[in-house]
Amino acid sequence: MKRTFQTLLCGIALTMPTLAAQAQDAATATAAAAAQAAIQKAAQRHVVVLATGGTIAGAGASAMNSASYTAAKVPVEQLLAGLPEVQEVARVTGEQVFQIASESFTNAELLTLAKRVSELAKQADVDGIVVTHGTDTMEETGFFLNLVVQTDKPIVLVGSMRPGTAISADGALNLLNAIGVAASGDAAGKGALVVMNDEIHTARDVAKLINIKTGAFVSQWGPLGMVVEGRNYWFRAPIKRHTTGSEFNIDEISELPAVEIAYSYGNVAPTVVEALGASGVKAIVHAGTGNGSVPNRIVPKLTELSEKGTIIVRSSRVPAGFVLRNAEQPDDKYDWVVAHDLNPQKARILAAVALTKTQDTKELQRIFWEY
Q: Spelled out in words, what is the top-level CATH class assigned to the domain 258-370?
């Protein structure tokens, strides 16, 4: 028994240094892991979230209210605080630029937002920018940023179709995906993007085609890619000129000329066209039927305005396809511009931006082909 006890003591004595060494190793590993985590956190890409309001910042009376709610209620700090997962994706800071529903955006808001995006893009410590935005005019704001902010850093617009208070709200995942895209190196150089419903779209092509479904945003030429469990999958790249390839620079634009849209339909009267002409607008985008058709009773009014110096852009209210020059109307004869595949609201944006450079219709048509 005495020998057995001595043997046990010897075994414990021999084991203690090993256990101590293991404990020290574990402590060292823990410290190293903590240091590595700190390094990784410090090395995270910095994404600035510019909040402008919209449904993603909205709130309903109950969880059942997914389509009836008040937009632009939740500040950016609260949006980010409710999504702690973003801190694993990037180092995120937020700014409240506006707190409005996007249907209330004007040219003034476009200019203010674009100038702030441009300022941030010039900062060495900013790697990407996310703009939270109401969905009603997000495609227009995105296209404007695509045209005038000269940076290769990711600019990502995001919104939601349901307020955060609703059952199955889509805003949190949309925002997380948008921040992930903005933080990723592979989104650089692709211009302004819209991330909605797990899809990555170029802001140039995307349009809101449904008003109460989460899959509301569609590009007729297809999305650029998808986000699945935080990983980007790319399938194509934008071809049209944008951002660093653009001849337009928000730093040189202080105001936008007046451009309005005249919507066409069966039995349309020339009243709107006449009123717009009398108001002194610089350009009228005619949202025609089919291939940008213009009713015979409207043609004389538009040609008269064109002869007096108002730029006429012939577009289509049809959500897909593109307007062919000199088809349906003799555009060369009338000196009109065709909008190509841009919908009327985006044609308005491009016309306004282009008119800050030129009023020559041949130059304007070139711009519509290239952008």
A: alpha beta
Question: Which residues are marked as active site?
Answer: 55, 135
Of the pLDDT bands very low, low, confident and very high (cuts 50, 70, 90), residue 21 is: low
Equal CATH topology for 45-245 and 258-370: yes
The binding site comprises 102, 135-136
DSSP 8-state class, residue 332: H
Domain ranges across the chain: 45-245, 258-370
Bind-site residues for substrate: 102, 135-136
Select the CATH number that applies to the domain covering 45-245 from these four: 3.40.50.1170, 2.60.40.10, 3.30.470.20, 3.40.1360.10: 3.40.50.1170
CA distances from 86 to 92, 123, 157, 175, 192 (A): 7, 21, 16, 9, 21
Instruction: Assign 9 a pLDDT band (cuts: 50, 70, 90).
Output: very low
For the stretch 40-63, pLDDT in tens is 544 599 999 999 999 998 887 887
> Do residues 313 and 262 make contact, with C-beta atoms less than 8 angstroms apart?
no
Taking CA atoms, 329 is separated from 234, 285, 295, 314, in Å, by: 39, 15, 10, 9
Spatial contact of 370 and 240, defined as CB atoms under 8 Å apart = yes
Predicted TM-score of the model (pTM): 0.88
CA diameter of the chain: 119
